[in-house]
Amino acid sequence: MATLLLIDSSVSPEGVSASRSVTAAFRKTWEEQHPEGTVIHRDLAADPLPHLDGVAASAAFSDPATHTPEQQAAFAVRVKLAEELEQADAVVIAAPMYNFTIPSTLKAWLDQVIIMGRTAGEAPSAKGTPVTVVASRGGSYAPGTPREGMEYVQNYMEAVLGGGMGMDVEFIVPELTMAPVNPAMADLVPLYETSRDKAHEEAAAKAKALVARLAA
């Protein structure tokens, strides 16, 4: 049985959040195609992780036998997150753009789960695991747009997940998500709707393809 790790990070609830609607579409297809599988769901907005501090960081670079009680507790959180990642056959991560980058809650998850010598380094433990990043944004930062140079979500996630952790990264990019609620973007609503529909189709297609790939 295959396991899907689903990470949501939007502060908005399902039904409002663009990224949550896409990860939900991904999960729905995954479960339809693979009803006997497992889904590990972390909602980082509802249940945020502590930001990495000196205690948790130092624990990763010291002998567990020497850990203080505080280091033991802090490192146990990191180990659990690493185990969830290592257990996953596929990962889907919601990474909405907030102030040109990812939510701080998602950054906290990354800082905690990236452990040198385990999930990162010469032989990352999740190397090759397919990960789909749902990089939603209120405007457009696509090549050729005025804000192309401010696209820090896809570039960062590709670098950290692919370059740092050796994972197989793909993106779904729902854009112009502010068009329905921003009067100044009213003429962009048709483009938003096209992007939204395409994102849902891609989510279903990627989930279906992954299930088939893992079953082969």
From TrEMBL:
Residues 3-173 form the Flavodoxin-like fold domain. Keywords: Flavoprotein, FMN, NAD, Oxidoreductase. Coiled coil: none annotated. It comes from the Bacteria. InterPro entries: Flavodoxin_fold, Flavoprotein-like_sf, FMN-dep_NADH:Q_OxRdtase_AzoR1, NADH:quinone_OxRdtase_FMN_depd. Homodimer. This is FMN dependent NADH:quinone oxidoreductase.
